C-alpha cells in the first residue's frame, strides 16, 4: 500500500507544480527563483496557510519546488502531504483509480486500502474503477481541470473536477474536514439540498493581495454568506476575540457570518440547514 500511496502523491505533487501559481495568490508577479524569489513564495505560502502549522511547511516546500523546478523532497509525512495536496488540487476534485486487469484478491485488498487512505487524508473523493478504464483525456483539458497521468505498476490515476466521465462531486468545492464530525454531519444534510449546490468547504477568501487570507468552514460566495462551526476551543478568551475581529472584517466585505456550535450541528443539523437556507436565498436575491 505504501508504494501505491507514494506513487499517487508524487503524481499529485507533479500536477500541483504544473498548476503553479494558480493556487498561490500573489505569486504571479514572481518571475523566477533568482534574487528573493524563493523567499517571497515561501512567505506567501506561509501567509496562505496561516494558523495551520502542518499545512504551512508543506505549502512552502511545494511553492519553492514549483518556482525553482526542483522536485519536492517529500521530507514531511505522507499524511501531511496528502492533506496539503488535497487542499491545493482539491476542492471538489475526484481521484479516479483504474487498476490493471487480472489483479489477485490480495492485490485488490491493497488497492482498496490505499484508496481509503487517500480519501481520508486528502479530503478528496477517490473512485476505484474495477471494470472499465477511464475515458481518454481531451487533448486540451478545460482550465482548472488537472491532466490525467500514469503511475507505476500499470495503475492509471486521473484527477479531475466534475465532468461527464466522473461522478458529480459531492460538494461544489472543497470537503468537510476529515476530523470534524460536525462538518461531516452538516454536509450529509446539505448534499441533498438544491439551494446549497454552490457551497464551498474550507476554501480561502482573499479580499486583497495585501491582506491575509481567511479560510472559513463553509462559504457561499455569490450569496455572501459564511458559516463557522465552533467547538469548545472557541470559548477561550483569545480565540473568542480573534473570531470577533475576523467576523468584523468579513462583515465589512459584505458577508453575513453565521456561527453554530458543534453541539447544535450534531444534535439538529436540519434546523441549522434551514437557518442557513434563509440567508443564502436572501443573499442570492
Automatic annotation (TrEMBL):
One Pfam family linked to the record: DUF559
Ranges where the DUF559 domain occurs: 217-279
Compositionally biased region (Pro residues): 132-145
Region (Disordered): 129-150, 162-182
Domain of life (superkingdom): Bacteria
Protein's name in the database: DUF559 domain-containing protein
Amino acid at each position: 500500500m505504501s508504494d501505491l500511496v507514494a506513487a499517487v502523491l508524487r503524481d499529485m505533487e507533479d500536477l500541483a507544480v504544473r498548476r503553479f501559481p494558480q493556487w498561490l495568490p500573489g505569486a504571479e508577479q514572481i518571475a523566477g527563483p533568482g534574487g528573493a524569489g524563493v523567499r517571497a513564495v515561501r512567505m506567501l505560502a506561509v501567509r496562505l496557510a496561516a494558523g495551520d502549522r502542518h499545512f504551512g511547511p508543506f505549502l512552502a516546500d511545494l511553492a519553492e519546488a514549483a518556482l525553482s523546478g526542483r522536485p519536492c523532497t517529500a521530507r514531511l509525512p505522507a499524511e501531511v502531504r496528502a492533506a496539503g495536496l488535497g487542499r491545493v488540487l482539491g476542492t471538489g476534485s475526484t481521484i479516479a483509480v483504474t487498476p490493471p486487469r487480472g489483479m489477485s484478491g490480495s492485490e485488490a485488498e491493497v488497492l482498496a486500502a490505499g484508496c481509503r487512505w487517500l480519501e481520508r487524508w486528502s479530503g478528496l473523493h477517490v473512485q476505484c474503477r474495477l471494470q472499465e478504464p477511464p475515458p481518454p483525456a481531451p487533448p486540451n483539458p478545460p482550465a482548472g481541470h488537472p491532466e490525467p497521468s500514469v503511475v507505476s505498476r500499470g495503475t492509471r490515476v486521473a484527477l479531475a473536477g466534475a465532468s461527464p466521465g466522473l461522478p458529480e462531486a459531492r460538494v461544489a468545492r472543497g470537503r468537510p474536514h476529515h476530523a470534524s464530525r460536525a462538518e461531516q454531519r452538516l454536509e450529509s444534510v446539505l448534499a441533498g439540498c438544491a439551494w446549497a449546490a454552490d457551497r464551498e468547504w474550507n476554501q480561502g477568501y482573499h479580499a486583497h493581495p495585501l491582506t491575509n487570507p481567511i479560510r472559513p468552514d463553509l462559504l457561499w460566495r455569490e450569496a455572501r454568506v459564511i458559516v463557522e462551526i465552533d467547538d469548545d476551543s472557541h470559548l477561550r478568551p483569545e480565540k473568542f476575540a480573534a473570531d470577533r475581529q475576523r467576523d468584523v472584517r468579513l462583515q465589512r466585505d459584505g458577508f453575513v457570518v453565521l456561527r453554530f456550535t458543534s453541539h447544535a450541528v450534531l444534535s439538529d443539523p436540519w434546523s441549522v440547514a434551514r437557518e442557513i437556507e434563509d440567508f443564502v436565498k436572501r443573499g442570492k436575491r
